[in-house]
Every structure is written in structure tokens, then in C-alpha cells.
Amino acid sequence: MTLPNFITIARFVLVPVIILAMINDEMMIAFVLFLLAGVSDGVDGFIARQFNQRSELGTWLDPIADKVLLVSVFVMLGWLNVLPNWLVLLAVSRDTLIIGAVVLSSLMDQPVAMRPLFISKANTTAQILLIVLILAELAGIAEFGAVTVWMIYITAGLTIASASAYLVTWLRHMAGNGETG
Description:
Elements: H1 3-23, H2 27-50, H3 56-79, H4 85-107, H5 118-138, H6 146-175
Helix pairs in contact: 1-2, 1-3, 2-5, 3-4, 4-6, 5-6
């Protein structure tokens, strides 16, 4: 197993620990572990590129680990009533749409290679930043007030734009009218 794959698997292991910390109102622990998970995502990618340790397994595991982390924390923040349920539903629905499209196209013998779009990267960045702001507030580190509110709406807009872009890309692929990605 490559070092990047090991780091990615460790990120999977952090998810239930972060959620348990949130359930137990240990927000400083959740905040620090979420930051650690974020740093580990960058580190595993750097190692994979810099030391030519890319693998097919890592190509699949890394984005799955990211989604499991983000979706789990989003759902938990919704459950704790600190993130609007409509935003949680929007984010989870977007990810479900993407996964469903990939699975359906494979079942229909038209596999699609869904590469991250720029808007998707912007969406993920906004989701991460929003989670960091909220966990920092819950941990008592800082109060962001209006910034957090703006980030909620920015994240919602990027989520809708990203879902729409992936849907258009997928529909074109399924119709045979263009490349994916």
C-alpha cells in the first residue's frame, strides 16, 4: 500500500471520530481533527504527485474520503441545528446526483469519467471553509457572524451551479454529444 493511500484511509477513520466529538459537544476536538483531515488531503496528494505514488485505488479512495467527510459533517451540523437543513439537503442531493449519474451510465454501458470541474472545486472549497468557520465558532475560537451567513449562501449558489454543470456534462455524455470533464 502506498503512503498516500494509507493517509487517505486514515482520513476515513477520522470521520467517525469527528462525528463522535461533535455528538459529545467536544467542538475543539472536532475542529482540530477536521483541520487535520483537510491537511492530510493535501499531504497525500502532494506525496502522490511528488514521489510518483499515484495509484488507481487512490484515484477512487481520495474523492470518496473527501465526500464521506464533508457529507458526514454537513449532516451532523444540520442535526445540531447550526447549518440550515435546506443547505444540507442541497449538498447531499448534489453528491447523490453525481454518484447516481456515474452508476447509471456504467449500468447502461456508457461509463463516464467524471473529472472535477472548476466550479466543483470552488464548491468543495466553500463547503470546507463554511465547516471551518462553523466549527471554529462552536469551539469558541472566534465569532464570524455575517461572514458565516454569507458563506452559507455562497456555498448554496456554488452547490447549485456545480450540480447543474455536472448534470449538463452527464446529459451530453449520455447523448453522445461531447466529452466529459
